[in-house]
Structure formats: structure tokens, C-alpha cells
């Protein structure tokens, strides 16, 4: 079980016959590790290629969308061929298992709780202090996965329910935050809401599944009769490292939800862009970016932001 920064570790198990990289996982060491284990590497994006990899171009603007099945079959065929050529490669998969509840979405959450009113009541009473989407890629500029765990720890202790997906979810999955036993790490009132049946961190899917969280948050806001920007919500991608992470943060901030990070956004090339993202969106979107390289201090800022929204709602 690994995310983007741990990609070479997955290859190092020797278990993979073929590795497909699209716009991510284009890391310099991939080819070196793949050669050690005779793993075939295929890239599909013309702007993200690896020296020595086989390249089957797939246009994201859909100019060759009719070739989708043909390219997929070609990749599967190469995997079968690679399997036959790798019978002498030793495989070691660490004997480590985790238990996790995954697959949360607006539909099954609403079904489980008979709508969103239960969340409104819990938020108003303070049983749930707020809700935070903790996501984003990993970043080699900071200690691997540490920021994600430190922030999650602090938030659930303060009775904040978390959603997660993609790379940031992996440390939370591995360390038990996404299992019902993980509720023991949470504050007392959040534990009571979870009733011993649900985890304190709800896993919604891959890194492109942020929309599932926004749908849930919008549903709860609607049930409360409030604008989503006024609700005690926050977005954090502690270790973000690429343009997709920036886009995800901006998407939530377009709802008026503040975003929090432990790494500066890669926009220092333009003072205007940096000021726009960090400050100027307050009037336009009712939200801003906050960056603090100390994860625990950032968590306290998230909590303070949520408490401020609760005060404005009169939910204290």
C-alpha cells in the first residue's frame, strides 16, 4: 500500500509485470528500479515521458479517443508478455494487512443517516465541531506523510470529522484512522457520534473524488439552510506538490472554504498570482490560503477558523 512518493517501493517488491504512468508517477528513479525487476514501463502522456519506457500516446483532448480500447488491449498484452519474461524475478510483498472502511459517498452516507439532518444537529450541538477534507499528494520537501498524520491527529482529537482520498489517505489507512477502531483516537463527542460503528476519517476514493466530499458538504449545508461558505468546513492538503493539488484547493475555495497547507504553493514566479491566491480571493470567494510549515500549528489554525465560523453561526 503506497502513494506517489512511495512508487519505487512498490516496484521494488518485484510483483509488478507492467507499470503504467500517465501524468503522475513520472519519477527519475522509476526506470532504474523497473530494470532491476524486469518490469515493463508504459507512459501515455506526451508531456510526461520516461527515458527507456514504451510510449503509447493517449490525447487528453480526445483526438484519439476512438483508440482507447486498442491502446488498453495493447497495454494488457504487454503485461502478459512481461509476466512470461519475469518468471525468474523474486517477489517479496511485506506481510502487512490493514482493516479500513472505504467507499463513503453522499448516497450511502445519506442512506445510513436517513438524510443529512443528523449532521446538522451534531454540528449545531458541537458534537461534531466541524468537517475537514484532508487530501493531496505527498511532497519530498517534507517528512514523508508526517504532516498528514499530525494534522489528522489534532483535528479528530478536537471532534472534527475528516474526509480523505488519494495519496494523503494512505498514511491514515495504514495507521488505522479509517477503521472503526480508529475512533479511539478521536475526541469524546465525536466518538459518541460515531457510535463505535464508523471511523473518524471517511475515505471517499481516489484523488479525483473530491467531488464526493463537496457533494456531502453541500448536502449538509442545504439541510442546515446555510450557504456552504458559512459552514464550519475546511480543506487541507498538507503536502501538496503539483498543479492538481493547487486546482483541488482552489475548487474548494470557490465554495468559500479556506484551504490550509504545510508547503508553499508553487507560484512564487508571480507575485500577482501569489497574492491573488493567498489574499485577494477573500473578497471574491470568501476564502484564502493559509500556509504554515508546522503541521501541528497549522491544525490549530484550522480549528481556529472552524471555531470562528461556528461563532458567526451562533453554534457555540
UniProtKB/TrEMBL annotation:
Keyword Iron-sulfur recorded: yes
Pfam families, per database record: Prismane (PF03063)
Gene Ontology MF, one: metal ion binding
Lineage, top ranks: Bacteria, Bacillati, Bacillota, Negativicutes, Veillonellales
InterPro entries per record: HCP/CODH (IPR004137), Prismane-like_a/b-sand (IPR016099), Prismane-like_sf (IPR011254)
Organism field: Veillonella seminalis ACS-216-V-Col6b
Alphabetical GO biological process terms: response to hydrogen peroxide
Keywords tagged on the record: Iron, Iron-sulfur, Metal-binding
Protein name in UniProt: Carbon-monoxide dehydrogenase, catalytic subunit
Presence of the UniProt keyword Chloroplast in the record: no
PANTHER family linked: CARBON MONOXIDE DEHYDROGENASE, HYDROXYLAMINE REDUCTASE
Amino acid at each position: 500500500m503506497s502513494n506517489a512518493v512511495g512508487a519505487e517501493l512498490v516496484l521494488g517488491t518485484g510483483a509488478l509485470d507492467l507499470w503504467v504512468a500517465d501524468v503522475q508517477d513520472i519519477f527519475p528513479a522509476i526506470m532504474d528500479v523497473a530494470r532491476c525487476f524486469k518490469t515493463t514501463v508504459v507512459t501515455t502522456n506526451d508531456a510526461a515521458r520516461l527515458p527507456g519506457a514504451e510510449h503509447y500516446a493517449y490525447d487528453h483532448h480526445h483526438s484519439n479517443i476512438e483508440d482507447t480500447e486498442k491502446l488498453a488491449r495493447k497495454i494488457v498484452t504487454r503485461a502478459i508478455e512481461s509476466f512470461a519474461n519475469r518468471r525468474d524475478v523474486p517477489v517479496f510483498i511485506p506481510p502487512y494487512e490493514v482493516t479500513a472502511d472505504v467507499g463513503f459517498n453522499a448516497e450511502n452516507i445519506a442512506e445510513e443517516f436517513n438524510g443529512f439532518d443528523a449532521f446538522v444537529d451534531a454540528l449545531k450541538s458541537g458534537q461534531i465541531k466541524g468537517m475537514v477534507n484532508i487530501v493531496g499528494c505527498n511532497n519530498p520537501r517534507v517528512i514523508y506523510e508526517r504532516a498528514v498524520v499530525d494534522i489528522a491527529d489534532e483535528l479528530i482529537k478536537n471532534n472534527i470529522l475528516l474526509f480523505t482520498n488519494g495519496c494523503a489517505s494512505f498514511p491514515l489507512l495504514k495507521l488505522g484512522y479509517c477503521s472503526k477502531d480508529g475512533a479511539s483516537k478521536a475526541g469524546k463527542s465525536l466518538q459518541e457520534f460515531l457510535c463505535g460503528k464508523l471511523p473518524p476519517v471517511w475515505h471517499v476514493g481516489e484523488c479525483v473524488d473530491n467531488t464526493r466530499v463537496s457533494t456531502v458538504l453541500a448536502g449538509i449545508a442545504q439541510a442546515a439552510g446555510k450557504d456552504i461558505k458559512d459552514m464550519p468546513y475546511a480543506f487541507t492538503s498538507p503536502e501538496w506538490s503539483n498543479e492538481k493539488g493547487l486546482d483541488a484547493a482552489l475548487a474548494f475555495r470557490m465554495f468559500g472554504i479556506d484551504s490550509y497547507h504545510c508547503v508553499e504553493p508553487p507560484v512564487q514566479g508571480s507575485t500577482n498570482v501569489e497574492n491573488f491566491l493567498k489574499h485577494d480571493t477573500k473578497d471574491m470567494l470568501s476564502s484564502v490560503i493559509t500556509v504554515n510549515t508546522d503541521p501541528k500549528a497549522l491544525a490549530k489554525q484550522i480549528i481556529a477558523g472552524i471555531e470562528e465560523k461556528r461563532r458567526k453561526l451562533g453554534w457555540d
